[in-house]
Amino acid sequence: LHIIIAEDDNDDADVIFETFTKNPNFGKVSLVPNGEELLNYLKDAATETPDVILTDINMPIVDGIEALQEILNNTELKNIPCFVYSTSINPSYKEKCDVLGVKAYLIKPYSFEAFEEIPKTILRIIEV
Q1: Which end of the chain is less enclosed by CB atoms within 10 A, N or C?
Q2: Statement: residue 64 has pLDDT above 80
Q3: 7 has a pLDDT exceeding 90
Q4: Sign of CA dihedral 28, 59, 55, 34
Q5: SS3 of 21-44
Q6: With left for phi above 0 and alpha for psi between -120 and 50, is residue 37 left, alpha or beta?
Q7: Percent of the chain with pLDDT over 70
Q8: What pLDDT is stored for residue 99 in this prediction?
Q9: 3-class SS string, the chain
Q10: C-beta separation of 67 from 35 below 8 A
Q11: What dihedral angle (degrees, nearest 10) is formed by the CA atoms of 32, 4, 47, 70?
């Protein structure tokens, strides 16, 4: 599978990139620093359409929810399974994600070992 991850925190980006790279079910892991770059990547005809999208919420320029609104209202992109992961447990964020059709709202773990559960959770939900 090809996953694209939008994450603005360099430390979290390194950990999540390594976590997905180590999982044999993900053959390609692309990383972008914010929602605007995520949208640019998805609109670029020269890039391969990913199988899965994972985005943080709180990012500069275009946040995760704004990016997901555009993705999930686009006929060419709306069938890509989208996931959110965030340190925020704000119920209004989760509600917005549920309304948009996000597959799951995952809480960012505090340990490296717990990050390894994220790809497993995504795979269970999309049933690969």
Answers
A1: C
A2: yes
A3: yes
A4: negative
A5: HHCCCCCEEEEECCHHHHHHHHHC
A6: alpha
A7: 99
A8: 92
A9: CEEEEECCCHHHHHHHHHHHHHCCCCCEEEEECCHHHHHHHHHCCCCCCCCEEEECCCCCCCCHHHHHHHHHCCCCCCCCCEEEEECCCCHHHHHHHHHHCCCEEEECCCCHHHHCHHHHHHHHHHCC
A10: yes
A11: -80
Long-range contacts of 100-103 (CB under 8 A, 24+ apart): 100/65, 100/68, 100/69, 100/72, 101/72, 102/68, 102/72
pTM: 0.94
- pLDDT of 89 reads 80
